[in-house]
Amino acid sequence: MKWIRMLGLYFERVFEYRLRSLIWLMLPLINNFTLILFWNGAGMNTPAITTYYILMTVGGLLTTSHCEFEVSDVDIKQGQLVNYLTKPISYYWVQLLSEVPYRVMQAIYASIIIGFLLFFFPRSLIISLNLLYLPLVLVIFILGYTLSFTFKLSLAYLSFWFKDIHGLMELTTIAIIIFSGGIMPLPWYPQVLQTISNILPFAYSGYYCTVALQGIVPLSGLLGIIAIQGVWLALLLLINRMLWMNGIKEFTAVGQ
Amino acid sequence: MNTFKRYIRIYKAVLKINVALILAYRANFLNHLFSTGAWGVFNFIWITLLTNKAKQAFGWNGNELVVITIGYIIITGVHYSLFAHNFENFSRIIDRGEFDGMLLKPLDTQFQMSMMRVSFASLIRTILGSALLVWWVVMHQFSVGIFQIVAFIALMGVGVVLMYAVWFLFITTLIWYPNLSNMIELLYTLNGFARYPTKMLTASGFTPLLLLVPLALIVATPVSVLLQKNTWSDVGLLVLLGIGLFAVSRVFWKFALKSYTSAS
Question: Considering only alpha carbons, which residue of chain B is nearest residue A45?
Fold first, then answer.
């Protein structure tokens, strides 16, 4: 019951600031829209490319976590973490839950975008997803989001040891954009970048979620993506747990 | 003239305070230097990857497109150093009524809101971009004369004014919607249009995009002069928009101030 109550409160907060949420939606939308325009000008735009960037926007909205700034700046640096430490709830789950309403809000916006595009530009979107594979794609999206969340949370935990990790966060954001296929589809990258992208976890919460939804990955490919996501998630959960157990020993909060 | 001299004197004091801040928070400065430099490098990687695949776009070849992005790195370095970081606190200042204190001071409020914080770390982008520009122009043997260089620098100056005006017009709306703290993120994103040729917007056939043409002119115009791509109409438009939108931003700010209700 307590989890449902908390979820309700988080939903309230998100729906109170709808306009701000709309701006967050516009950021990836604008970035990907400029890329569609660019490929158009380069004479290389095809419905497949347009679809890729639109689904990248949607996928990014649904699977990219942004928990790191609040955890690092508010909870750890400003000491708000004490509020959670004294309660019989897991900090990991509280944070994961607090992001769910954002994802729901973004999913609503994303559905509107896709609906609008399908209605007005039916030829610009090509989604050939076999509906039988939909549960697998759903699993890929859930794992993709959990992967992104666990990574960002682990990154934020570094604030237990370092005064300011903004530089590291910015660097990570850059790495995520490049290696998750944020610039263009991974097969268009030079071979060395493709290899690195396939090794790092970022593509498994970005590029592979997008192509899975696009319907261009066969069944064996979908299962392969889920397997790699599982391995990365297990590894990141382990790291996350270690960072938390050791980091919490470094945490101090004072008051009168 | 006396007022101008007074503001120059005040701005010198602002610069000194900001230098003192660097010395007081050295780690913060280094952190910012590192991250802002990384974004500069990222922009270069971005366009290199795109032009690796697309050999030309909108009448610009791959190497010329890279020059636009380098110009973008230079100009954002200047803009972020002088103005952008001031706008980051705008929402909080309005929302919490901290603006009251500024209204009481015998200083222009637009000046206070736009120029009190100087981010010296962001200048790394300008330095990095300038070095990249020289290297790229020499390596690809672009024919560049002294006139082109002078015109390029002058037009980049106009570009900074135009970028400031566009940002300030957007940010002024926070007087009415102070909760939109992420407006600044939207501006950073919209700025990205300056990385591409102007034609990308004008040829899109999507009318609302024409509103963003000022942003697309900011870098592409000086670069087209540098590379002698002869777009004098764009030069005229850039200068006109630079002066015009700066004046409009000033009038709009004065108008918006009437709606400021403090934190009550």
Answer: B54
- Tell the residue number behind the tokens 């004091």, with chain if given: B13
**ipTM score here?**
0.89
* The token pair that represents A21 in the structure block: 């949420």
Q: What is the pTM of this model?
A: 0.90
Mean pLDDT to the nearest integer, A82-93: 87
What percent of chain B is modeled with pLDDT above 90? 72
Q: Is A34 within 8 Å of A42 (Cβ atoms)?
A: no
Task: Give the DSSP H or E segment for A8.
Answer: helix A2-16
Are residues B68 and B223 in contact, defined by beta-carbon separation less than 8 angstroms? yes
Task: Enumerate the β-bridge partners of residue B57.
Answer: B60
Q: Is A12 on the interface with B (CB under 8 A)?
A: no
Phi, psi of A22 (to 5 degrees): -65, -40
DSSP assignments along B210-221, one per residue = GGGHHHHHHHHH
> Whole-angstrom Cα distance, residue B197 to residue B59?
9
Quick one: CA torsion of B225, B231, B236, B241, rounded to 10 degrees?
Answer: -90
pLDDT of residue A15: 72
Residue of B nearest to A186 (CA): B49
Closest among A209, A206, A214 to A182, alpha carbons compared: A206
* Span A60-79, average pLDDT: 88
- 3-state SS, residue B198: coil
Chains A, B: CB contacts within 8 A come to: 93
Chain B CB contacts of A27 under 8 Å are 185-186, 189
Q: Which of B46, B57, B179 is opposite residue A17, by nearest beta carbon?
A: B179
pLDDT of residue B63: 94
Which chain B positions have a beta carbon within 8 Å of A38's beta carbon?
50, 54, 57, 196, 200
Asked if A44 and B199 come within 8 Å (Cβ–Cβ), the reply is no
B22's CB contacts (< 8 A; 6+ apart) are: B29, B120
Q: How far does the CA of residue B235 sit from the closest CA of chain A (Å)?
A: 22
Please write the tens of the pLDDT for every residue from B197-216.
999 988 877 788 888 899 99
Asked if A41 lies within 8 A of B35 by C-beta distance, the reply is no
Q: What is the DSSP letter of A159?
A: G
Least CB-CB distance to A34: which of B183, B192, B203? B192
Whole-angstrom distance, CA of residue B130 vs CA of residue B74: 6
Q: Which of A21, A27, A168 to mutate to test the interface with B (most CBs of B within 10 A)?
A: A27
Instruction: Return phi, psi of residue A134, to 5°.
Output: -55, -45
Ramachandran angles phi, psi of B56, nearest 5°: -155, 155
Please determine, for residue B226, whether its predicted confidence score (pLDDT) is greater than 80. yes
Contact B174, B91 (CB under 8 A): yes
